[in-house]
Amino acid sequence: MAKARVLIRPKEGILDPQGKAVERALPALGFEGIEHVRVGRMVELEAEDTERLGELCEKLLANPLIEDYEIQPL
Amino acid sequence: MIWGVLQFPGSCDERDALHACELAAGEARLIWHESRDLDGVDAVVVPGGFSYGDYLRAGAVARFAPAMEAVAEMAAGGAPVLGICNGFQVLCEAGLLPGALLRNAELRFRCHQVELIAEGASSAELGGPEHPQLSSRSAFLAGIKPGERLSIPAKHGEGRYYAPDEMLDQLEANGQIAFRYADGHNSNGSQRDIAGVTNDAGNVLGLMPHPEHAVDPLTGSTDGLRLFRGAAAAVGEAAPA
Fold first, then answer.
1. What is the pTM of this model?
2. ipTM of this predicted complex?
3. Which CATH architecture fits B2-238?
4. Which residues on A lie below 8 Å from B165 (Cβ)?
5. B85 is catalytic
């Protein structure tokens, strides 16, 4: 079985309120100078056949209209 | 007429939907998500709730339910299909409706009565270049005049309607915007104040607010019932109210 990691991010230009909330919380904790925080998802999986991982991402793990994905072999 | 109301694990508004359907016309039955057979129903409601726990993305898993294959066939055949809240999310994920629903801009789950404006050809008072006035073709809007205001409850955490600008332009040009939030009522940050859209043919409608919760004067508004009556009229059952 081949291990892989899929990173899913909100597409550039789409408002990411979770990222904004995290960003706004940082100064109160003493972390200054951090911006453009984006929050996405990570999916780890093991596949017999990694050929179809792209299709899997398109159909289920990500919604291509609003999210970008990146497959990283492990 | 016979209505089918889908039921997924995690649906929570299917009972109110059954009630609303039957108040409008005919009888309504629940359809379990594993059923591939819609049993001859004339119209389908995909209700609100948290299908499959909203895991991954709201509606992302529910779209693979066997019952959804049958719904897609019915939709292609022109039958009225109404997706409410989570049902709207499911229909978008399934590709039966354009666009997507994102986390509310303020991140809060919002539960309140909202004012909706029905889109339409003669609502000149809505004006403005960003709101070209075109007629919605949805069967559910039969009997609702363009520009009419409907008071309907909304309750969701992921109701921010999103589509790329060019797709939004296309939807407006096609008359696929069914409802917009009135000024001050777009609490989720939806693009162009969009609360509900239809497919190209107009027989599939999705909206975030809950018409099935606005069918009895006891709860403040009966405006939601008009959508169900519109669909009944479309299948030749009753005159729209």
1. 0.90
2. 0.87
3. 3-Layer(aba) Sandwich (3.40)
4. none
5. yes
